[in-house]
């Protein structure tokens, strides 16, 4: 099914805006059948949708707080940041380069308290814990509603591979990735997300999706009070391709330096989950 894009103007440049469906977390929690159908349709067609979390004010306040903690964290010297770098660890610690940086914190490490948080993050560890806990719960709500649509006779459930107490690599990842002066310097980073669901909070144009029906690229608009949710390769595999993991990339619509921050929750399956249909 082909869905038309609307146009937007950013700094005198016309861009295509991806036609993302909006799903209400409040209605999902109320077990609204129409909302469940809308969620299933979005997860099957584009694999990207907005989750309206505007009713969850304390959760959004924690997202705002994390932006500010992220800013403080990346204001440190490169020498300090590199203390959080972990060689050969895909899911933990600081990674960075010229003009960008990310810090990833595993949910299991926060729960076990075995791995210390970087000092600046530790000073706001309660916010980190609340955000991880709430984002994990939100992801389970989405899994539950998708499972009802996928297997109306309860034959299977995506929870089979996402038991909250089993070890998994779900994580909070914060980014500083300023936009670049020259658009030509933006490197291609087209990918799909490997995990189950990604919840992205950001306030700027930064994500482009490849529309599956015509292979054209379209921009995802940042909307206050909404998470941009991505279906990952794991859900695509567990459902035998019924759910769609969409190719996307991080870029910018126009040249020009601007600070850009993002707060992301990567919801991942139990460790050692095989990517075969349930
Ligand atoms: Fe991604």
From TrEMBL:
Stated family: Belongs to the iron/ascorbate-dependent oxidoreductase family.
Keyword terms, alphabetized: Iron, Metal-binding, Oxidoreductase
Entry-linked InterPro entries: IPNS-like_FE2OG_OXY (IPR044861), IPNS-like_sf (IPR027443), Iron_ascorbate_oxido_reductase (IPR050231), Oxoglu/Fe-dep_dioxygenase_dom (IPR005123)
Keyword Ribonucleoprotein set for record: no
UniProt key word Iron: yes
Pfam family, one: 2OG-FeII_Oxy
PANTHER family found in the cross-reference section: 2-OXOGLUTARATE (2OG) AND FE(II)-DEPENDENT OXYGENASE SUPERFAMILY PROTEIN-RELATED (PTHR47990)
Superkingdom assignment: Eukaryota
GO molecular function: metal ion binding; oxidoreductase activity
Organism: Arthrobotrys oligospora (strain ATCC 24927 / CBS 115.81 / DSM 1491)
Protein's recorded name: Fe2OG dioxygenase domain-containing protein
Fe2OG dioxygenase domain sequence ranges: 167-269
């Amino acid at each position: 099914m082909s869905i038309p894009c609307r146009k937007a103007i950013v700094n005198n440049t016309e861009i295509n805006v991806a036609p993302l469906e909006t799903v209400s977390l409040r209605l999902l929690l109320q077990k609204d059948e129409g909302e469940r159908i809308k969620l299933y349709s979005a997860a099957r067609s584009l694999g990207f949708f907005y989750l309206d979390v505007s009713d969850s004010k304390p959760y959004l306040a924690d997202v705002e707080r994390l932006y500010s903690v992220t800013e403080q964290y990346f204001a440190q010297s490169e020498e300090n940041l590199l203390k959080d770098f972990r060689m050969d660890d895909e899911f933990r610690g600081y990674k960075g380069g010229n003009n960008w940086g990310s810090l990833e914190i595993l949910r299991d490490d926060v729960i076990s308290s075995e791995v210390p948080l970087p000092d600046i993050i530790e000073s706001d560890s309660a916010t980190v814990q609340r955000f991880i806990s709430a984002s994990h719960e939100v992801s389970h709500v989405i899994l539950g509603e998708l499972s009802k649509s996928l297997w109306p006779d309860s034959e299977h459930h995506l929870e089979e591979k996402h038991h909250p107490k089993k070890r998994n690599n779900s994580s909070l990842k914060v980014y500083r990735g300023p936009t670049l002066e020259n658009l030509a310097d933006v490197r291609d980073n087209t990918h799909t997300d490997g995990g189950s669901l990604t919840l992205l909070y950001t306030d700027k144009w930064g994500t482009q999706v490849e529309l599956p029906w015509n292979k054209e690229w379209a921009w995802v608009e940042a909307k206050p009070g909404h998470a941009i949710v991505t279906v990952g390769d794991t859900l695509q595999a567990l459902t035998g391709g019924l759910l769609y993991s969409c190719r996307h990339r991080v870029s910018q619509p126009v040249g020009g330096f601007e600070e850009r921050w993002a707060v992301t929750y990567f919801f991942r399956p139990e460790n050692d989950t095989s990517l075969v249909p349930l």
